[in-house]
Amino acid sequence: MRKYGAEIAIGIVPVLIAFLIFIGQNVVPILMLGVLGFVVVYAARGRGKLTAMSSQNRSAEAKSTPLTFDQIGGQERAKQELVEALDFLVHQEKIAKLGIRPLKGILLSGPPGTGKTLLAKAAAQYTDSIYLAASGSEFVEMYVGVGAGRVRDLFKEARTKANKAKKSSAVIFIDEIEVIGGKRDGGQQREYDQTLNQLLTEMDGIYANESPRILLIAATNRKEMLDSALLRPGRFDRHIGVDLPDKKGRLHILNIHAKNRPIDENVVLDRIAKESFGFSGAQLESVMNEAAIYAMRESSDKIGENHLSMAIDKVMMGEKTDREATKEERERIALHELGHAIMAEVVRPGSVSQVALSPRGQALGYVRHNPQQDQYLYTKPFLNGQIMIALGGAAAEEMFYGGRSTGSRGDFEQSMSIVKTLVESGLTDLGIIDASMITKEAYANINREILDELMLQTKATLETKREIFTQSLETLLREETLSGDEFRSLFKSNSAA
Ligand code: ATP
């Protein structure tokens, strides 16, 4: 009967309209309402179908290029934890014998571009499962119930596809889970609540003995936003942190992406890994890609270290812009950047990797720093040093021009953010406090105290290095860039004098 519902409706509707006209009713408003309803329902459904199609395409793509854990760099701990969890799915009989409840959901949390999607794809490959992907934002709709319908369809599609492919399991990956899995407030967001409820219902409907078995892998970079119902045992109860890679991890990722690219034999990827501190896997992939583009622009058939170095700058600060500065501006920018660079060499000798006068992204000039090693804990002297490096630009402008320009805005933002870290880590005279315990005024006072004191120290230090400014300025204006080594040789000859 349901099967022929549409046909019956098509038959009944014209008869009904003819009858209404016959008895003298005005059918125009009814017809208009009908058309409007049709458009709304089909627009919503159509989008649903489009989404399903896009995820089909994605899964087809995943199928054609199986991705294994070997192709994911760094993340050794995350990979190990994930494989351990997946073994529950692989050895189902053993698990059932011991009465262990089936694993339903794994939550991958960490910054963007660290390889969460890759891990989910590799998990599907490892467990010989069908892979289906969706993003939280695909479930967001104006009409109540449409998102929930899509969740239902996604699970149905996973089961159908796994059956068709004769697989015993399916992995559903939902990226940006926080979009639908955010804390429920029971108020305005009724559509989101329904979508989340549907997801919870589907997860509760996964049983140990069903075939195909469904495993849900979700990714987020805002775990704290998730509703506790999602995180409770029996749902997403395996949490795996996917952090930014350390130097070893970065080298591993660079090696993976260097594999199919013609890298010059003189390139030392270890150095590139060192210079790309704080980069995610996606940014490192981008470095390799941009370096290849630079090589192509220069008609070089090999990717050299200079291409990689330029690519790091591009990924870090954006493409070079062709904003033309006046002669006076260029001089001010050069002195400003030298202020940063000199302070950096004083505070952390050997750390300057490049001083540049070329505009890039929002910056008119920049100093690239080269951390000696990855660091995760910072002391008060270290953070004070960072503030002094950030203030070096403004201090130099004051020294040579008697005042600052708008060019220090970003430096001050950075300095204040470090002060915030100092306050929140209990490293100031305020003692161990929570930021909410102090008034805005008290916060402003401590901020001013710290920054004024460090600004005085920065200026006093730079005053002793006036010679280095005047000597490097000419070269920097002429060459536009000074490599770390060139800058240090000037710095050392002057410091020795
Ligand atoms: P998002 O949170 O933004 O969705 P994500 O953590 O899911 O990001 P992926 O989509 O897995 O990140 O990574 C994007 C791209 O970055 C990958 O296709 C790959 O080229 C590269 N990449 C990221 N992390 C790694 C890694 N650990 N090893 C190798 N390549 C990586």
In CATH, the homologous superfamily of the largest domain goes by the name: P-loop containing nucleotide triphosphate hydrolases
Number of domains: 4
> In total, how many beta strands?
8
Largest sheet: 5 strands, parallel
Proportion in helices: 55-70%
Mean pLDDT: 85
Radius of gyration computed on alpha carbons: 30 Å
Query: Which fold name is given in CATH as the topology of the largest domain?
Result: Rossmann fold
Report what the structure shows:
The protein is of the alpha/beta class. It has four domains: about 1-45, no CATH class; about 55-240, P-loop containing nucleotide triphosphate hydrolases (Rossmann fold, 3-Layer(aba) Sandwich); about 245-315, Helicase, Ruva Protein, domain 3, CATH 1.10.8; about 325-495, Methane Monooxygenase Hydroxylase, Chain G, domain 1 (Up-down Bundle), CATH 1.20.58. Helix content is about 60%, strand content about 10%. The chain contains 19 helices and eight strands. Strands 2-3-4-1-5 form a five-stranded parallel beta sheet, sandwiched between helices. A three-stranded antiparallel beta sheet has the order 7-6-8. Helix 6 links the parallel strand 2 and strand 3 (about 170-175). The longest helix is centred in the first third of the chain and has 37 residues, at about 30-65. The protein is elongated and about 95 Å long. The model is unreliable at about 1-5 and about 45-65 (pLDDT under 50). Bound molecules: adenosine-5'-triphosphate.
Comma- or semicolon-separated keywords:
497 residues, alpha/beta, Rossmann fold, Helicase, Ruva Protein, domain 3, 4 domains, five-stranded parallel β-sheet, three-stranded antiparallel β-sheet, 8 strands, binds adenosine-5'-triphosphate
